[in-house]
Amino acid sequence: MTDHELDILDRRAAAAVADLDRALPDGAEWVPAHSPPPPDRSVRPLLLAAAVAIVAVLGLGLVMSRLGEGDDQSTVAGEGDVGGTDEFVRLTFLDPAADALAFTAAFDGISAATDQEQVTATIQGPNNADDPWTGAVQVFTTTSEGSELYGELVDLGGVNGSFVRAPIFGLQWIDDGRRHSLTSAALDETALAALATEAIASGWRGDGPLPGHRILHTGGLGETFPTLPYVSLGVDQAVAAVGYRSDDLAFAVGTVPGGESRYRALQVFGDTEAVQVRGREGVIVRHPGVGDLVTIAWRENDRTVAQVETFDDPGRVIDHLDALEPTETASFDELLEMRQVDDEHRLLEIPADELDRFSDPDETPPDEVMAEISETRQGFGARALLFRNEGQPPSLHFVTEDSSGGASGTGAPVRDLEHATVARSSDGTRGIFAGVVPDAVGSIEVEGADPARIEDIEQVSIGGSDAVLFVAWSEAAAPLSSTVVRITLADGRVIRYAT
Amino acid sequence: MTPFDDFYRGEYRPLLRIAWSLTGRKDLGEELVQEAMVTVHERWESVRSYDRPGAYARRVVLNAATSAARRRAAEKRAIQRLEVEATPVRLAPEPPPDDEFWSALRSLPERQCQAVALHYLEDRSIDDIADVLDIAPNTVKVHLHRGRQTLAETLRPQEDDR
After folding, report:
1. How far does CA B42 lie from the centroid of its chain?
2. The dihedral sign for the CA sequence A456, A460, A461, A462
3. CB spacing of A12 vs B159 below 8 angstroms
4. How far lies A374's CA from each of A434, A489, B71, B80, in Å?
5. Chain A contacts of B152, Cβ < 8 Å?
6. pTM for this structure?
7. Which letter does DSSP use for residue A462 in this model?
8. How far is B17 from chain A (nearest CA, A)?
9. How many angstroms separate the CA atoms of B16 and A418, rounded?
10. How much is the ipTM here?
11. Which one of A6, A30, A343 has the shortest CB-CB distance to B37?
12. Rounded-to-integer distance, Cα A453 and Cα A95, Å
């Protein structure tokens, strides 16, 4: 690069700045604003990536429905909270440099809020269990504008329900404009369906405990899922957590108010490993299916749960945590005042790296493709791929392209090959379905549609199993009137799946 | 007229110039500046005591512009993931004049983009830029050098056409 070329650049820049100056409006007057904008404004889809993680966890149905309004649950103390004389404290490295750490970013609990914050969830356990947490179910109810369900349909005593199988197993049903969701890492589909059926039969409407259960904890959704641990803090604070970094470690330290029930709640959906942290009993929580994020948690005192989030080796992170100092909130805020909140920090975008595989199959090495179909029928091209993801559930990636070149793509995690996972692409009149089912496809019908039968089906076996990957094209004669497909497998099983 | 009113009057246009050029959208730039001003206003008692309150406001705007860019990328990825047959949103983004130049600037790595923007938009010294970005002056020099080189290379064909 020559000086002459840089001179040309400088002149171009000066001209661009001058043009910009001329286009700027005249000065503006300050309109006093004494409070920050509300966190749920439409212009603040701030943690969309994090919301996507919630979508992945809860299933599309939650997002498609209108979330409950007015359910103020900024932080509801868990019923099982243990009282005590200790005050809620912050934890900070008063001198990060002394521990070879750099202060990186502060995460803003307010701007990290999403609409999902408004959903109150309870953790419930069976009355008759010695340790009800071992059979814990997360329960929440939202209002629902539509009647759509997504996933494999199941009969709940005359009411349709749908399983959300990945990455965390759950069941949803809609009753009189209310969408009820039960999510559990402990119950299998038979037990969860039986519980939902009993709840429906008993007239349970989303209030109070499920039949035979008691509420162990009440709080926001963010209290149980990784990536949004700071959503439902419920205390007046702007900054929720602080990031630190060394040459090869990055982690965020956050403290949240709460006692034993909150501490247990954040372990409900993870694989846990007991550890010692700062001389206390703590736990490492891994979240299968939700990326490589690891949470290290412990109870700093009776009123404070500490959560450290990292992608790195938790054992090495724990070594640093001894140097954390309890700090009053006022001092903590003062410490952070000159630091900018980074509400798009990587630690709040989890698991973008994992999910990116869904949107860009080219990034995935070919040896990770378990099965693939690439065909064009009826003017629609379709490419379906099943990826093997190391340490994570497989993922179905589905891209379609019409004759005009318009393309769309979708991705879905596949819990296992023993259950169905189906994705749909449609231009409103025609539909293409791609999916993984546990046996060869005999036939597929679109319920309620005309024509109801799909003739064009491509399927390939998935090595080492009876399962197949399929793509099915609906005929182009009529609008789709339903999104439910009935798949009859070669072994006679029938799967109804809402897409 | 309060001290903050004076600050607002004096800084609004310079901040909007940064936000508009770095987001490529006037409406978004105005929104970011307003949000930055709200942040400054909330912390005014502390910020006013700083040697250069404007540097603090610039840091807020630069971070917000960077976040907005990341957010758009995340939204794009998320929509791709979720599919949901979303209806395209029609926007009137009103790019800045000569957006070819600003677009090339925005395509630089984050810190290079911020350093070069402050260099051209505000004619700031190395030390000033270091103060705003809270990084070492030598680091600013590196970012400026690399950023200007990349920018010149990116824009060179267009320059040759002129």
Report:
1. 21
2. negative
3. yes
4. 11, 22, 32, 19
5. 1, 5-6, 8-9
6. 0.56
7. P
8. 7
9. 56
10. 0.86
11. A30
12. 68
